[in-house]
Amino acid sequence: MYIDAKFEPVAEKFFALTTAQPHGGAALSIIQHGEPVIDIWAGEERPGKPWQADTKSVIFSTSKGLLSIIGHYLIEQGLLDPDEKVAHYWPEFAAGGKENVTVAMIMRHRSGLSAVREDLTFEDMQAVTPVEDALARQVPIWEPDTGYLYHAGTIGHLLGKIYFNITGKRLNQLLQEVIATPLGVEAYFGTPENIEDQIAELKSDDAPLIDYPFESPLYWNRRAMTFGRALTGHVDDFLGGFNDPRTHQLEFAGAGGVTNARAVAKTYSSLVHETDGLRLINDKTIEAAISRPNPGRNVFGDPEPYPIHSLGFIVANPEHSPVLSDKTFGHDGLGGQQGFADQKFKIGFGYVTNWIPMVADGMARHREITRVLIDTLGA
Question: What is the pLDDT averaged over residues 282-295?
């Protein structure tokens, strides 16, 4: 463990919050100017086993930040144009009235494909291509680019197919080549079997599942994470949920990435400051990524405050979550995961936990930690 003396109040808040959890543990890593200032963990990765330095966990939608970083790397390399039509890279995608959908519409959650209409199976998720084919066939749930709605799971398959058609490489290979290996971190879109015993066991306060009216907003929200019949919809199920080793092994970059806080923080640090001799993407690319926020409420009219999505990242909205500056960007995840960078303070931040509240406010912990970090920095 490491705690820079200046950041002791942040560490104290982390340990207090983790001790107060009814289950599990957590880890926090913060890097500033390319150097670690906090790298700590506490609690249990599973009953009777303390959290370890190399413990990894499912980071849910914080995966989307890593997915987006790969996309912006390809943009910077001149291989991907966010304003190009998806069908340019993926001709079959033009079916169902989607011929004018652009890559940016997917990255900004405006493509109308927030969930799958077809009832897919777990085996379809394992094979990956049946999910991609179903999305290529699908008629959008709403008229593309007339509004936005969070693409909770599908964004990984949509962008994954585009990246594959450009590079010939599946998402986990790209993750290893672009981020994990250069930075010397562990992060996976599909874990190898031999690290299963290093993955934290999740626990949630999941409410009972309810059958919602067909094509109602809650119906689509449920399907966004179940893909029809592929997943159970309960976070901590050991069969068809996120405690299932088979789920850990899926290419599920929308919500199923597996990594640790150190890797998240180091990745985001490398976006705003040279970290271990590496700068993943440059300031111009970052500015373009965070300068296209979605305006107003989503197509379901969910009330404020809400996260504001730009080109693959959640951008600064202090009414929703505390931020270090107007140049804070990243992506949170179900039950409290968080990863962000800040251009002004040159910060990379990573927080992961295996206590995944659904009824209680899972995001409260990383928000409280961030508030103390703001005070510590004088932000």
Answer: 96
